[in-house]
Design goal:
The complex is a heterodimer of chains A (589) and B (293). Chain A has 589 residues and is mainly α. Chain A has 15 helices and 2 strands. Chain B has 2 domains: 94 residues, no CATH class; 178 residues, Sandwich (Immunoglobulin-like), CATH 2.60.40.420. Classes of the chains: A mainly alpha (589), B alpha+beta (293). Chains A and B meet through helix 3, strand 1, helix 8, helix 9 and helix 10 of A and helix 1, helix 2, helix 3, strand 7 and strand 9 of B.
Chain lengths: 589, 293
């Protein structure tokens, strides 16, 4: 990697600027747009819309768990359909789409100093295929038999059998088709993000000057491009099993006294394929959050991110390691038990780069000038929930400790804390942070603080106690918790409490949505750089940035993204495109 | 100020909740106290780390909050600090991993004196098979499953003839004797889970999986299915009774062998243990409730 310091000068542009595709009508400007920023907003709006469906589904589940027997319309079939759709929507159609399709599209070109993604047309197609995937998914609610109730992991054989809702109806077929479409759409976008980061950076923007947001999204995208194919083939194979009667995942089965026409398949093969995708998927969601939260903390603490190079290598290291830990989801799956030694070791090793990231976030706060803005509050809340959820990962990753806890509510609490609540808190922080750039106006502060406190404390009160239900041995994915000897009266009360908190936290999200819409017109004018931040997206000539982002000339980058409070400088931030030296440069080489 | 206080309250509240709340594991009934100990070690290490990180954050937020004219320090890296933190973390992780792997190696290596007990899961009930006098279970195949042969025991295998078949009824085990649970399913994934035994393992159609344990106290324990197996999953309960040796033998004497069950004159007879009928009917009635709702 060539490092360019101001003294070396800036290399000449090697490639002539490419003419952008300019819209000719309202349709090509706002609907079939090839501008990454418009595509980003389309992705975000669609993800939010389908996310609201997942939110309502979670309320329905909590109604059943918190007040068993009260709501007759929540049958076990319906419960399993809710739980499956909730999980799949949150992980794939909301979080993955929002972080990569939403934030990736908006921020990558702006932050690396490019006019747009390198393949704008494919980028546009990516969104429309994603939308199609979402529509296919939603259509399963209206299909005969309803959506699949196989659990978001879709484990065969039950996923395609009649004892599971949607197994012998349309539900599972639509789910698998939708996933296949999603992966096709994602691949189009993902190739764009990777090539743009590698080839589209402006002059002076070396890899080691990229903001950590870009590093996070970039690494996550590379991982997704490697991990999604495993899910893709698993979906195709299961679709063949279901539709054509092949036996990839189906052994000989006696179902309710009848022999099925399958023989010789391996259910556990699906689990390996699923988790070879599924574990990297955790980090596909987490790494963009890691990157974004680093930039939020640095900007709002007015201090450079501590240990930038270590942070980059931790992101890359976590990304690589996450491909050799997948079977920690399968300790009690019946795979060969000796795998447990290997996967427990790799899983606990991954805790080390993850811990380094946490240390560097909190050390960035040390001797900072901490502005408790709403993005900073969300960043702090992220650290709390991420540390909490990460540490319970040390229980579940440590093979023998996982044995009593796996498939219990402990797991549900763990993964919601670490890959539900924590990344979503970053999403909120990021929206409060970049909304002024995307709209030119600030989000309302009072509503924002209300939203923050209810969401953070509420979510903690939901998921922290839930771990202890799992410790009692209460299994997950139980549509009813009756007739169980381990289920005490007080545990039922705890469940009711958790449900009530879930309704309150859900309500706070309505306030947030209202704020998003209301502030477009009524928010305080933001100006170009309200947070006094260093990165390129805040240095655009217009706010919101016009198509092409940077006016006539692309910016030239002279420094890393974290020159906050540089000794000797007049302001407490120096934009990346500001030439000149201010005292001894301490940018890490 | 308020933010720092809330962060401190989160730590204090979480620790107090852990110590005072009534929600804790069930009294153990197997030899896997090792697992409980490993969980306790993990709680200690992770609890200390969580408290330290969040309290440090609270201190930073309080001490370095923005005030008029304050300015942050400029310190991009500190190699010594970064590497020492890395080493401390590696030590902590090793302290968790090493005891965990030791216990895992006990968990997967079955003692030679363990008796085989077969568990067969199907939507949505539990059946069991115990070796007869020969101490060996006969081989089985899902393709041989039928109304007369619910577990798919292969009739041509002589080892299977004296196997004790317990269909959709309670399992009894003698206290203090190690057992190797050989787990099978004839339809979808299930998971044989008794919270008091701490152990569990998925059951995969087409494979035999296992875990072992030694029951350490007598009593009646509920079996739960811990792997989603369709709409009847939450009702797939069973019962394991841990008996004294004497009670166990008495129970065993009342059970029927595979040979007895498959002999023509016995088929379809009502000569079943009363418990079997009751439990089977109960499961059926429950599933009807599931269906009608």
């Amino acid at each position: 990697m060539v490092d360019i310091t101001p003294a070396d000068g800036i290399p000449p542009a090697e490639i002539a600027e490419v003419e952008l595709y300019h819209p000719h009508s309202w349709w090509t400007k706002y609907v079939f747009s090839q501008d990454a920023k418009v595509i980003a907003i389309q992705y975000s709006a669609t993800a939010t819309g389908i996310g609201l469906v997942a939110l309502v589904l979670s309320w329905l589940m909590r109604l059943q768990l918190g007040f068993p027997g009260t709501f007759d319309f929540i049958t076990p079939e319906a419960y399993y359909q809710f739980i499956t759709m909730h999980g799949m929507i949150m992980v794939i159609y909301l979080l993955t789409a929002l972080f990569l399709g939403g934030f990736g599209n908006y921020l990558i070109p702006l932050m690396v100093g490019a006019r747009d993604m390198v393949f704008p047309y494919v980028n546009m197609l990516s969104y429309w295929v994603y939308l199609l995937a979402v529509l296919v998914l939603v259509s399963s609610f209206f299909a005969p038999g309803g959506p699949t109730g196989a659990g978001w992991t879709l484990y065969p054989p039950q996923a395609i059998m009649s004892g599971t809702p949607g197994g012998q109806d349309w539900g599972i077929i639509l789910m698998l088709s939708s996933l296949i479409l999603f992966i096709i759409g994602f691949t189009m976008g993902g190739l764009n993000y990777v090539v743009t980061v590698l080839q589209g950076r402006t002059r002076g923007m070396t890899m080691m000057r990229l903001p950590l947001t870009v590093w996070g999204i970039f690494t996550a995208t590379v991982m997704a491009l490697l991990a999604f194919p495993a899910l893709f083939v698993a979906c195709v194979m299961m679709l063949l099993d279901r539709v054509l009667g092949t036996s990839f995942f189906m052994p000989a089965i006696s179902e309710m006294g009848a022999q099925l026409q399958h023989n010789g398949g391996s259910p556990i093969l699906f689990q390996h394929l699923f988790w070879f995708f599924g574990h990297p998927e955790v980090y596909i969601v987490a790494l963009p959050a890691f990157g974004i939260v680093s930039d939020l903390i640095s900007t709002h603490a007015r201090k450079n991110i501590f240990g930038y190079r270590m942070m980059v290598w931790a992101i890359v290291g976590i990304g690589a390691l996450s491909f050799v830990v997948w079977a920690h989801h399968m300790y009690v799956s019946g795979m060969h038990p000796y795998f447990g030694f290997f996967f427990a070791t790799t899983t606990l090793i991954i805790a080390i780069p993850t811990a380094i990231k946490v240390y560097n976030w909190v050390l960035t706060l040390w001797r900072g000038d901490i502005h408790l803005t709403i993005p900073m509050l969300f960043a702090l809340a992220f650290i709390v929930t991420f540390v909490n959820g990460g540490l319970t990962g040390l229980f579940l990753g440590n093979v023998v400790v996982d044995v009593p806890l796996s498939d219990t509510m402990f797991v549900v609490a763990h993964f919601h804390m670490v890959m539900g609540v924590a990344p979503i808190l970053v999403v909120f922080g990021a929206i409060y942070h970049w909304y002024p750039k995307a709209t030119g106006r600030m989000l309302n502060e009072t509503l924002g603080r209300f939203h923050f406190w209810v969401t953070f404390l509420g979510a903690y009160l939901i998921f922290f106690p839930m771990h202890y239900l799992g410790l009692m041995g209460i299994p997950r994915r139980y549509a009813e918790l009756t007739d169980m000897t381990i289920m005490t009266e007080s545990a039922h009360h705890l469940n009711s409490f958790i449900s009530i908190m879930a309704f309150i936290v859900g309500f706070a999200q309505m306030v947030f949505l209202f704020n998003l819409i209301w502030s477009i017109r009524h928010g305080r004018e933001a100006g170009g750089n309200p947070w006094r931040a260093t990165t390129l997206e805040w240095q655009t000539p217009q706010t919101p940035p016009a198509h092409g982002n940077f006016g006539k000339d692309l910016p030239i980058v002279y420094r890393w993204a974290y020159d906050y409070s540089v000794p000797g400088a007049k302001e407490d931030f120096i934009p990346q495109n500001m030439p000149g030296s201010f005292g001894p440069s301490r940018e890490p080489a | 100020m308020a933010v720092a206080l809330v962060l401190v309250l989160i730590v204090v509240g979480s620790v107090l909740f852990h110590l005072l709340s009534p929600w804790w594991w069930t009294p153990i009934a197997s030899n896997w106290g090792y697992i409980d100990n490993t969980i306790i070690i993990t709680f200690w290490i992770t609890g200390v780390v969580f408290s330290a990180v969040v309290l440090f954050m609270a201190y930073c937020v309080f001490r370095f909050r923005h005030r008029e004219g304050s300015r942050a320090a400029y310190e991009p890296e500190n190699k010594r600090l970064e590497s020492s933190l890395t080493i401390i973390t590696a030590v902590g992780v090793t302290a968790l991993l090493v005891p965990g792997l030791f216990v895992w190696s006990r968990f997967v290596n079955v003692p030679s004196d363990a008796t085989d007990v077969e568990v067969v899961g199907q939507q949505w009930q539990w059946s069991f098979r115990l070796p007869g006098k020969d101490g060996k279970l006969g081989i089985s195949d899902t393709r041989d499953v039928s109304a007369e042969n619910p577990l798919g025991v292969i009739a041509s295998d002589p080892n299977g003839q004296d196997d004790v078949v317990v269909e959709a009824a309670d399992l009894h085990l003698p206290v203090g004797k190690p057992v190797k649970m050989r787990l099978r399913s004839i339809d979808v994934l299930h998971d044989f889970y008794v919270p008091e035994f701490r152990a569990k393992m998925d059951m995969i159609p087409g494979s035999v999986t296992y875990f072992w344990f030694t029951p350490t106290r007598t009593g009646t324990f509920q079996v739960l299915c811990a792997e989603l197996c369709g709409q009847g999953h939450p009702l797939m309960h069973g019962v394991v009774m841990v008996d004294t040796q004497q009670d166990y033998l008495a129970w065993l004497g009342q059970q029927q062998t595979f040979a007895q069950l498959s002999a023509p004159q016995q088929t379809g007879s009502a000569d079943q243990a009363p418990g079997t009928m009751a439990s089977g009917l109960k499961t059926a009635a429950r599933l009807e409730t599931v269906g009608s709702r």
